[in-house]
Amino acid sequence: MELKARVLIVGGGAIGGLFAWRLSLSRDVTVSIVCRSNYTQVKNTGYLITSAQFGSGIYRPKGVYQTVEQAVEAEGPAYDYVIVALKALPNIYDSSERVAAAVGPNTMIVLFQNGIGIEEPFAKRFPNNPLVSSVSFVSVKQECPGELRHGGFSLLAAGLHNAPRSVADRYHDRLQFLFSAFESQGVSCMIEADIQPYRWQKHILNGSTNPVSVICGGSSCQEMVNNSHCKWLLEESMAEIFVLGKIVTGKSFPGVDGIVDPQSATDYIKSIPVPVYTSMLVDSQCKRPMERDVILKNPIALAEKHGVDVPHMRALYALTTMIEEGYTK
């Protein structure tokens, strides 16, 4: 019997659920998933997915668990791949600790998380494991537990994080195997020697629209760019990200979606036909912790390190911190 690669996806929200669905359709892998708040719905009825790109369907994962430890107990240790789709909340928990039980000596860890500096906890905890930093360019929302709505596009860009030359080729082949499984099910994939310019590219929108939408009290991205004052704030924040990201990476951004400067970024937002509400806004409305550390605090620390002035970023961090502290008291 042909052995399939064993994949555990930790984090069964919108990103984790969508990509688990696509990956599970490949004949080369078996996929299980760890869910938290939507565990009951996914366990009992699966995911109900409406996708402009892939069509609609119901996805019932092979294994659905509440914790990584439960998955390991039921299926055995040492998965071939652990895909981390948890919220990146280092001020609340250590994502690397939460997946540790599933990581064996040969497990490839693939990060599907937003923000800057997300790799370091994993590199520190698992110095001998292949670590992949992946950036997803996709519009998907969990409208209620277990119900996902996906747009017409999905792209994964990824690269090895600090892989020694002696093993880089072997690790690249393993990443290519995983991404070939995604590509066989319609997900566009790119493997880059240096993924950080892509991470900063995505951060142009993440690092600006997320905190500003929270401060605006619930506005969609389109509403924000159609307000001249708010558009100015977004573009000033984006300009700081462009400058800082290029200094940190030493490279220009790849220009995904034609975004090459703040003006083109706000033009891109205007072109999206349906209202887009940021994940940080949804978290704030649900009184949940926001990803403010990886979205704002970590970039601010890099700005201090490189001597870059980021006054708008600092203001956004101060305000979102106060908002979150106000509803978590």
Q: Count the E strands.
A: 10
Order of helices and strands: EHEHEEEHEHEHEEHEHHHHHHH
End-to-end span in angstroms? Answer: 55 Å
The shape, in one word, is globular
The computed structural class is alpha/beta
In helices, the fraction of residues equals: 40-55%
Return the average pLDDT rounded to an integer. Answer: 95
Spans where pLDDT lies below 50 across 5 or more residues: none
Provide a short characterization of the protein structure.
By secondary structure, this protein is an alpha/beta fold. It contains 13 helices and ten strands.
Give a structural overview.
This protein is α/β, with parallel strands linked by helices and 329 residues long. Helices cover 47% and strands 20% of the residues. It has 13 helices and ten strands. The protein has helices at residues 14-24, 39-45, 68-75, 95-99, 120-125, 165-183, 196-216, 221-225, 228-249, 262-271, 279-285, 292-306, 311-328; strands spanning 5-10, 29-34, 47-51, 55-59, 63-65, 81-84, 108-111, 131-144, 147-160, 188-191. Strands 1, 2, 3, 4, 5, 6, 7, 8, 9 and 10 form a ten-stranded mixed sheet that branches. β3 and β4 form a beta hairpin. α7 (196-216) runs antiparallel to α9 (228-249) and α9 crosses α12. The protein starts with a strand and ends with a helix. 43% of the residues are buried.
